[in-house]
Structure formats: structure tokens, C-alpha cells
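Re: the request from the purification team.
They wanted to know what the chain is likely to look like in 3D before they choose a buffer screen. I agreed to run a prediction and write the result into the notebook, where they can find it.
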Amino acid sequence: MKKGRRATSRTPARQAGLAPARGTAGYEGLVGEIGALFEQARRTSARAVNALMTATYWEIGRRIVEYEQGGKARAKYGEGLLQRLASDLTARFGRGFSYPNLNKFRQFYLAFPREEILSTPSIESPPPALEAPSEASTLATVAAGFPLPWSAYVRLLSVKNENARCFYETEGRRAGWSVRQLDRQIQSQFYERTALSRNKAAMLKRGARPQREDAVTPEEEVKDPYVLEFLGLRDEYSETDLEEALIRHLETFLLELGGDFCFVGRQRRLHIGDEWYRVDLVFYHRRLHCLVLIDLKLGRFTHADAGQMHTYLNYAAEHWTRADENPPVGLILCAQRDEALARYALGNLPNKVMAAEYRTVLPDEKLLAADLQKTRRMLERRGLTEGWKP
């Protein structure tokens, strides 16, 4: 009888073997389960937003193309239409509707027309007695035809060969490639290598295997620049507490140098081609009449840092600088533990006289380096970089 009572006193969870174990191992298991659940929820949320975003951009592209083809007169001013749309939509909704973006939506629809979507009953014109399908149902139908994230389709648009583009999309869907894996396969000319191979099945099987660098973390999926832009969220975050604290200090330090520095923004994003970049700090210098771009590096200064800064300067000169302003100047700060350096990127200036004037007016490099080193030591003593290793 005792055995019977013990059996019936168990809860359904215990009978099913779901009761949590006791002790430290059981608690750690609980933490792990909650963490895994949370990460999966973040991935699912990001993918749901990505599906809706991709469907929305395809629909925008479709409507632009159909409007352009609605009459001969409209077809003549396609470029002007995109420029006007970019201006009006940006004024109404903010970021995400620049001319390059709208042109990409248009290219997306033309490259992936999806006749099967257009013939779906929910998108066809309904009978007069029925109501037209809602925008939500239309987007849901379109989203089903584009299982890859938007960044994957952006990458596919760079593949000019239609057969190759179709191959990469098909394999990406079949094998579940991440965006990084898709990019790696395109760069390694996987389509051409497979076409020339005598054992295509083996090539496809090998290509389906992901590599370690192909993985995308839940945080990266959530903070994808395309997702943040689509949701209208700000993208202001740093990879470490040290970097965040140093950037905040630099902002205060430069503003305290006098009234010449005017703060413009932090973590200012640039979209060049299919890649996203960030400039840590952007100031405007009233006396020099120019933008000052500041990039912080936690490691040693390299030639790649200089090349990246010159890319930023060229972009800023074309997209951020006004006609009555001087060319922008870049400042690269290196915050390595045993070496704090400051480097000005002045190679884009039109003459040496202006470069000399910039050096005279801007903060002394040694002063900046010394302050950066001092601040780093102070932050480390305060424990703001706990767990961080140089």
C-alpha cells in the first residue's frame, strides 16, 4: 500500500520525468534551459521581422515597377520618381527610404518576380462581392515565398548571372545557409565549381556543411542593421564596456576643449554597397568649418585602420558635407594597454596648407594619447572592464 500511495502522490510532471533535479546541477540546468529558450525566442523574433521586412520591400518594389510601367510618360522619369519618393517617404517615416534603398527594392522585385506569388488567390483581384485582402494577409503570403533573410537577398542581388543567383537561393533555402555561409559560397564561386565538378552530389553535400565562422549569434540577428532600420530603432551599442566608457569620455573631453567642437552623433552608421560601418564619434568644428570623424581602436594601429578611415572620409565628403564646408578630417585613436596613439587622416585634403591649419587647430596628438591612456587606467581600476582581456 505504501508503494501504491507513493506512486499516486507523484505529480504529473514527476510521472513524466519532467521534475527538476535538486542541487546545483538542477539549478544550472534551469538557467541553461531559460537561456536557450530566450535565445531561441530572439532568433524567432528576428526571423519573423525579417520575413515581414522582406515581403514589405518586395511589395514596395512591385508597386514602384507597376507605377513606372503604368504609362509611357511615367517610364521616362524613373530616376526622378525614386528621388521624389525618397524625399517624401523619408520626411514621413524617417530612415530606410533613401534613394539607394528604394532602388534596391525595385531591383529586388525585378530579380525575384515570383509569378507563383502574383497568381496566389489572396493577391489576385477578388470578385466584386468579396472584400479585398488586407495588407497583412498579402504580406504574409509574400513572406512565405521568401524564407531567407533580407540581408541574404541583398547579397544575392550582387550576383549578376541569373542562373547562379537562382542556384545560390535554392541551395541557401535547401541547406539552411546563414548569410555568412551564403556570402562565403558566392565568394568561393561555389556555383561555377559545382557546374564543373563530375560529382555534383558530393559538391552539394560538402557545400551544405557550415563552418565555424558561418554561425550568427542571436544578438547579431536581433541587431542586424537592416532589422534595426526597418523597425526605426537606433543602433547605438558597443562590443565592450571599455569601448563604451572610452567613447563617452572622448565625447566629454573634446567638448571641454572649447566652443569649437560641436557634437553631431555617436556610432554614426554608413551604408556602403552591401556593408554597414560605424564611426564612433562625429563632431563639427566651427573654426575649421568641417566634420571631424573619430574612430577608436582597442588594438594596435594598422594600415587597415587608415584605409578604413579614408573610406569614411570619402563617404562623409560626398553624403554628409555641405557645399560651403571644408573636407572632413579623421582622427584614429588607439587605446592599447602599452601604447596609446593618435593619428590624423589628412590625405584627402586638397592642399598642404589646409592640412597644416588642421593640425594647428585640432587637439595635440600627444595630449589626446596621454588622456586616453590615463582614462583607460582609471576605468580599469574602477572595474568597468571586469572580465575583459586585452
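For the purification team: Confidence is low (pLDDT under 50) at residues 1-19, 120-132, 384-390.
Please add any questions underneath this entry.
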